[in-house]
């Protein structure tokens, strides 16, 4: 998995290579993309912390005034890849459970077979739901492409009538009609773009911690502020002895956006009136549409000596639209517990051996 950090928001998208990182550069300078290796610092959290949710952003936000078809094409392609991977993972799990049922029919208890059969039916329902969701996204995108072609045609007509002789009455009427059609098709594209954005699901982001060679010392305190469109997440933490970290917030749910990028600002809290901004980066998010949880690393400063580790899990269904039965089919699953697509809970805090920083 690879995410690219953008020098500033709302610029043209650059093609990137996949890796295991969430690479970053400062937002104030134009620097090439970097690929990083994953790392897993030890993080502990205060008891009683809960998952924060941002529910009122994407679905209730008004449609954009100007469509961005090129950006939507890229998001659509990334979304289709993510849904295809989701279907493949669930289909593989369904085949494994079906094989297990066939091998266990003669020598297993009836209750065990009944439990496996329930899991198979639950996955089948989930697969049908995914297929319907994918077909709905395809229909929205096809309707968007039709409106885009009509808008391009109206634009060409407006351009042709504007450069021609404007004196005749027929020319003025044709120009007014073409302008009216151009405006109508533009509004339709904005509405469809907003509707497609509401079908992108959720990003479940879990804080893993900061890592740096000699940058982190016991007693240091940091504040991390993430901004994604109108969605916000602010958390504070401190570095304790034995490289342990304590953060006041654990997880956040972001609604994916089409045209916005994830902005991350890290500030070191030295004293009451002395705060030092360590880094401020803006990151691409379209590569987060993946079937399995991903641990991504962000370069916070220019030299890459301070990195932020996040675990991101994409849920194709937003809010409570995820079927509850899909979360119960992991009892006899052969998929690794950490990367189970049915058990969406984050993994346990890593051990001290997992604190190694791989270059």
UniProtKB/TrEMBL annotation:
InterPro entries cross-referenced by the UniProt entry = FAM65_N, HR1_rpt_sf, RIPOR3
Gene Ontology CC = cytoplasm
**Its domain of life?**
Eukaryota
The FAM65 N-terminal domain covers 16-358
Write down what this protein is called: RIPR1 regulator
Naturally occurring in which organism (per UniProt):
Nyctiprogne leucopyga
The similarity annotation says: Belongs to the RIPOR family.
């Amino acid at each position: 998995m690879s995410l690219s950090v953008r020098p500033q928001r709302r610029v043209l998208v650059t093609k990137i290579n996949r890796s295991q990182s969430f690479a970053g550069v400062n937002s104030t300078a134009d620097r090439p993309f970097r690929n990083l290796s994953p790392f897993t610092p030890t993080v502990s959290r205060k008891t009683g912390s809960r998952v924060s949710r941002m529910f009122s952003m994407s679905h209730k936000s008004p449609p954009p005034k100007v469509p961005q078809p090129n950006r939507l094409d890229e998001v659509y392609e990334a979304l289709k890849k993510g849904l295809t991977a989701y279907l493949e993972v669930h289909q593989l799990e369904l085949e494994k459970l079906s094989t297990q049922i066939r091998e266990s029919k003669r020598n297993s208890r009836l209750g065990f077979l009944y439990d496996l059969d329930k899991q198979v039916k639950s996955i089948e329902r989930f697969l049908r739901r995914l297929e319907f969701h994918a077909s709905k996204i395809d229909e929205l995108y096809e309707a968007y492409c039709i409106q885009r072609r009509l808008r391009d045609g109206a634009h060409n007509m407006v351009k042709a009538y504007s450069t021609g002789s404007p004196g005749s009455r027929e020319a003025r009427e044709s120009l007014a009609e073409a302008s009216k059609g151009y405006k109508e098709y533009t509004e339709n594209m904005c509405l469809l773009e907003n509707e497609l954005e509401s079908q992108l699901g959720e990003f479940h982001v879990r804080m893993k911690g900061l890592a740096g060679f000699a940058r982190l010392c016991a007693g240091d305190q940091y504040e991390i502020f993430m901004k994604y469109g109108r969605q916000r997440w602010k958390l504070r933490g401190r570095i304790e002895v034995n490289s342990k970290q304590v953060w006041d917030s654990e997880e956040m749910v972001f609604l994916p956006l089409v045209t916005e990028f994830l902005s991350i600002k890290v500030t070191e809290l030295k004293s009451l009136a002395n705060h030092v901004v360590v880094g401020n980066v803006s990151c691409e998010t379209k590569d987060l549409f993946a079937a399995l949880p991903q641990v991504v690393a962000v370069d916070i400063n220019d030299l890459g000596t301070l990195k932020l580790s996040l675990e991101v899990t994409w849920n194709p269904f937003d809010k409570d639209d995820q079927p509850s039965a899909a979360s119960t089919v992991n009892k006899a699953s052969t998929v690794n517990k950490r990367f189970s697509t049915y058990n969406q809970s984050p993994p346990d805090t890593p051990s001290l051996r997992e604190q190694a920083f791989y270059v």
